[in-house]
Write a structure and sequence with these properties.
This protein is of the alpha+beta class. The protein is built from six helices and 25 strands. It has three domains: 53-189, no CATH class; 196-263, 2-Layer Sandwich (Alpha-Beta Plaits), CATH 3.30.70; 270-306 and 327-383, no CATH class. It has a six-stranded antiparallel beta barrel. A hairpin with an 8-residue loop joins strand 4 (102-111) and strand 5. Its main location: other. Keywords: Bacterial flagellum, Cell projection, Cilium, Flagellum, Periplasm, Signal. Belongs to the FlgI family.
Length: 384
Amino acid sequence: MRPQKIYETRSSFIKRTATGLLAAACLLLASAGSSEAQTRIKDIVDFEGVRENMLVGYGLVVGLNGTGDSLDSAIFTRESLVGMLERLGVNARDDDLDTDNVAAVMVTATLPPFAKQGSRIDVSISAIGDAEDLLGGTLLVTPLIGADGEVYAVGQGSVATGAISAAGEGETIVQGVPTSGRIANGAIIEREIDFSMQQMETVTIALKNPDFTTARRISQAINAFVGLPVAQVRDLASVRMLVPENYRGNAVALITDVEQLRVTPDIPAKVVINETTGIIVMGENVRISTVAIAQGNLTIRITETPQVSQPQPFAQTGETVTVPRTQIEIDQDEDKQLSVLSQSVTLQELVDGLNALGIGPRDLISILQAIKAAGALQAEIEVL
């Protein structure tokens, strides 16, 4: 029996091809739109072991142009200078030291993760005495220690302040902070922190903004990528991930692949208020129940317009006196009425409703706090 041949007309082929291309285009647009709204896991988490360490040290800055510490008031600077000179073979105990070209400083630095011995890091310099300016000074050899008391780096170099300080008899100009500076690549790493990621069997992922929903979405994205339930949410701030068999001995490759996965972080409903600057920042999920708001101020204006009263020309009696004239006006904003702020669906509608009240940021802060006290603001208020 001969097999039956199936023929397809040209029009049906074109129709089927166009339908497939249209479906592929829709799928591409959908994936592109969703990727724009998502964030890489790399940008919202920290991985176990990949962390920085703080270093601190005490040192001396020399070579200042008369703007250093006063040795009479800064005793620690004097003792440090004498100790340094004795270590160099100079006996300065019996001499009356009188110099203002030396300043005691605190040296701080950040040891990056997996920093290798011999590499360089930046250091920050801050005066702790009564020095006026560190411009042109040089930091002498300063050990930088970690929280465990061990020396991890040694700093030395010329201090760059980036500040300007000029004084005259009638005016003083100071731009920036002349008592703090920075030395680019001013410290050499002397000790490494031992930490190997090759033999890790589990990896802990810490969320920068803890949230249960975001943690669950991260674990789901990892499990979908690996194809196995290797990621599990421990709490709102961490996800524990097992290293699968195909990544054993190569945890770095697993972290590299995982941090490129994209998820949509869940943003809590929060209103952040900075009363000092009047800045208000509201999250996307902030909602307000239907409320009626009336905003008004009591303004009292007192105007003094004194007048001079004097007798008629050639009058035999009377004298010239100043007669007070006071005008008091009270504005109670009686034209301001209640405004209904309807329940908002989007952040834009909420902003439009608040702007419709015609108030400034300062009054808006008080209104938001009052709405929260009334129980109509479905968000958390954080005051900076």
